[in-house]
Amino acid sequence: MHPAYSVILFTTASGAGYGLMFWLCLGHALGLVPNSASMLFVSMALALLLITIGLISSTLHLGRPERAIGAFSQWRSSWLSREGVAAVATYIPSGLLALIWLLGMETSWTVPLAVLAAAGAVVTVYCTGMIYASLRTIRQWYLGLVPMVYLSLAAATGALLLGFVMAVFGYVPSWVAALTLVTLAASAALKVHYWNVIDADPGKYTAEMATGLGSPGQVRQLDPPHTQANFVMREMGYAVARKHAEKLRQAVLFALFAGPAVMMLIVLFFGWAAAFFYLLAIGMTAFGVLIERWLFFAEADHVVTLYYGASRA
Amino acid sequence: MTSLPESTEKKLGLVIDLDICVGCQACATSCKEWNTGGYSAPLSDHDPYGADPFGAWLNRVHSYEVGEGRGSKTVHFPRSCLHCEEPDCVTVCPTGASYKRVEDGIVLVNPDICIGCKLCSWACPYGAREYDVDDGVMKKCTLCVDRIYNETIPEEDRLPACVRACPTGARAFGDLGDPQSAVSKAVADRGGYGLLEEFGYKPVNRYLPPRTANSNTASTSVVAKSAEAIPKPDGSAIERLFAWADQALSR
User: What are the domain boundaries of chain B?
Assistant: First the structure.
């Protein structure tokens, strides 16, 4: 599958934003996050900024972005529509919380609003994952693991952001660093498991099945229907070289897990310059998660390639 | 509404005979010609006569080579939307632009509400949907919905453009939900099949398999017979006259 940069930016930025919103709201509801209105507001504003950048970016790959309002209508059948509805619904409690914290209001409503916002964040990221996991045409996506990877990466990048904002405001509780470490480890473990699963499956569909011409023997492409690549080949036929994929996977594991994990251990055991080490970890993780998302597309084989010379998909 | 209908009154579709398709591209060209001015207008092209032509086509003709050695054959393989009974290209659509008609089973895109998110093309295993970069919306085979019911054109033209154009009669159009229709009978007679049935979208279009050349002797005997039909030279005066004329004129 062709990696669309707007979709990569959307899923990674809004994923991190929802992750931050989730941990912030959960921490607030459980009384774990210090009740500093300015810190709470800056965290929520950062989450909403990332989510909004992501959502605006996602409309960039639309052919008719001016009609995007229509995408909220088919939530009964479409995961993309559900994601849109969940994203907009989540703006309501999170926006109210941002407003309450900005105005420094004292109210007990923040706890139920925080619970709603946290739930909305989980639902929205799950819907994002399901857009891909519901496509039977792509075996690397049609897996229950896919929304789990989306959720765990959102959780890890969000925890990292929360740790950074708190450190900037002078709060360095060890539970945030530990949470970041655990969610990063879980993400890395899930991703390695995902790669093992997709590598073990050669694809159950063949060119013979696609054309129904298998009885005399193997089907080979003699002439494609056109001299140059068409939309289907450009969009669905994109493939990454195996050896590059291997290197990029290692880069993901380093940038997304090993590097930030060292930073978290430094924060946990030494506790100095926490904001700086969080920022370093964020830089590495951003790089890692962008490559991870690019690979998610580039390594995906679409069944339609069977009509264009692939033998299995 | 992108939820699928429980059932459709008709199952309109195409039957494509791979035994007689010669890969002439007339169906693809005719499709493009009709649809660039019809329901799907415009079907835009970029650099159509240049080095890197790119454009939206609703029907594409592949050519495959099947098998090895003497048993191998070349099969020309037209591919367009199969108007599946249970396709995800409809259900994934967030806007309701992609829908399946209850009255005849045609899968259509409403170009007025499509947002061009391309998710439907990702959900199609057959590559039937092509995005129009200029129009910003998805395009697909409409079974020439603007021809088949069109009372302003002569009755013999009320067929999909591809069927009307096929010079070898390799394409037929009809109701595959009616076992008594000509297309259903052809499918039953010839062992017609759907593409990638394992996938589960229940495609409606059917392909008639290329017939197997069960004996090489059968095909060579036809050649031998026609060779026998040419009389052997008998050395008559008229033959010698023609031989002389041939030589004289060849100088």
Answer: 12-208, 216-250
A268 burial class (0-12, 13-18, 19+ CB within 10 angstroms)? middle
Determine the pLDDT at residue B217.
Answer: 46
Q: Chain A interface, mutation test: which of B15, B46, B73, B92, most A Cβ atoms within 10 Å?
A: B92
Rg (CA), chain B: 24
Residues 6+ apart with CB under 8 A from B61: A225, B21, B23, B25, B27, B28, B76, B77, B78, B79
A64 contacts chain B (CB < 8 A): yes
Domain spans of chain A, in order of start = 5-308
Residuewise pLDDT in 10s, chain B (251 residues): 568 999 999 999 999 999 999 999 999 999 999 999 999 999 999 999 999 999 999 999 999 999 988 888 999 999 999 999 999 999 999 999 999 999 999 999 999 999 999 999 999 999 999 999 999 999 999 999 999 999 999 999 999 999 999 999 999 999 999 999 999 999 999 999 999 999 999 999 999 999 876 645 444 545 455 555 566 677 788 888 888 888 888 87
Check if the beta carbon of residue B32 is closer than 8 Å to that of residue A177: no
Across the interface, whether the CB atoms of A219 and B66 are under 8 A apart is answered: yes
Architecture of domain B12-208: 2-Layer Sandwich (3.30)
Confidence of residue A234 (pLDDT cuts 50, 70, 90): very high
What type of residue sits at position B62?
Answer: H
Q: How many CB atoms lie within 10 A of CB A193?
A: 13
B23 in the Ramachandran plot: left (φ > 0), alpha (ψ -120 to 50) or beta? left
Place of tokens 């059932």: B7
Strand-pair partners of B2: none
What angle, rounded to 10 degrees, do the helices at A110-133 and A79-103 form? 150
d(C-alpha B33, C-alpha A130), whole Å: 39
CA distance A302 to B126: 10
Beta strands B206-208 and B12-17 are parallel
Kindly list the residues from chain B whose CB atom is less than 8 angstroms away from the CB atom of residue A232. 121, 127, 130
> Can you read off the two tokens belonging to residue A228?
């140059």
Q: Which of A55, A205, A226, A236 to mutate to test the interface with B (most CBs of B within 10 A)?
A: A226
Structure tokens at B142: 């409409």
The pLDDT of residue B221 is 47
CATH node for A5-308: 1.20.1630.10
Q: Give the whole-angstrom CA distance, residue A120 versus residue A87.
A: 7
| DSSP-derived secondary structure for B177-235 | T-TTSHHHHHHHHHT-B-TTGGGSS----EEEPPPP---HHHHHHHHHHHHHTSPPP--
